[in-house]
Amino acid sequence: MDHRDEGAGWAAPTPVTPDTDATPASSMPAPAPAASWPAPPVPPQAVPGPPAPPQAATATLAAAPTAASWQPGFMPLRPLGFGDLLGLPFRAMRYNRGVVVGGPLLLTLGATVLMVASMWLLFTDPSLALMDPASQADAISGTTVAVFVVAIVAALLADVFSSAVVAPGVARGALGERIRLAEAWRAVRPRIGSLLLLYLLATVTLVVGMGLAFVPLVIGAANESVPGIVLGALVAALVAIPVGGLVTLVGGIARPVVVLERRGAIDAIRRTARLLKGRFWWSVLVVLVATVLIGLVSSVVNQVGGFGAMAVTLVAPDSLVVLGIAFALVLALSLVISYVLTYSYLGSLFALLLIDLRIRHEGFDLTLAEAAEARRA
Questions:
Q1: Does position 149 have pLDDT exceeding 50, yes or no?
Q2: Where does the record place the region Disordered (predicted)?
């Protein structure tokens, strides 16, 4: 396993503490800390347990961790293998369920309620004449448009903050701490601007990359050339898939970097790129398999929801209003479950990838074990 510092080789059991204020026990010069992720990560200024004099705290942090401190929470403090990264997100979801599952649930539920309300307003708008063909209006009402726009914004914000609020729950759970959603949100709230900028940069990169990827296909279709269309589709696939994967990987890891290490969006992207050196293709494989796994689970949930919605149409009374409400509720419930599973699982995975990369590059397992030992003491 690759277990090294960014600037020099790492050899256990030297107690390197790259991101704490405690003085390292090693006499060798240590590189400057790569990030200021205190232990525990949330809240940034707090260390669990009763306050202790500075001398006692320093002595505790410098002490070698005992065996119990190498797995204080739901995960072992060591480099994580392929199976660990795929399975540990489920353990994180159980360990700090109020944050890892509750956060995405509240955000997704709010966005889904607004989306269902907007769809109902569109369905009943007189200008569309869906409910009453004889009823006509000059234009769609302003209320319908406003609610629809708010619903879209809410869905985008849910996507931004769902995985971000998961990160503190995973980080604190790695130290054996169970936190509330309010504590996790206090860590996310000061980083809202950076998270929105990161999301904007990822979206622009994805749109530009996809646009360039489909240019040859559009040219081939405009010229009505079959070889041009086939070549354009091949080029689009070869460009769009790597661009989408790169944006997903870097953006996914950069979000917990923004929250846990309190960095700006650009700095978080640079930090992520440095951590991925030597582990890029491994991380791509992990994210690809995890995305396929959770995608299959989500698709099953959506299919069940679709069948449930169709069943409602068979048993519901001959009332178009009742039928529409029942159909929307069943479909919305399946969508909420699907999105919550996706946000919770992938958000946990990216936070675990960040911890794993820091362990491999910076000996961060020692920092976490020392923090866990100090908390036990």
A1: yes
A2: 1-57
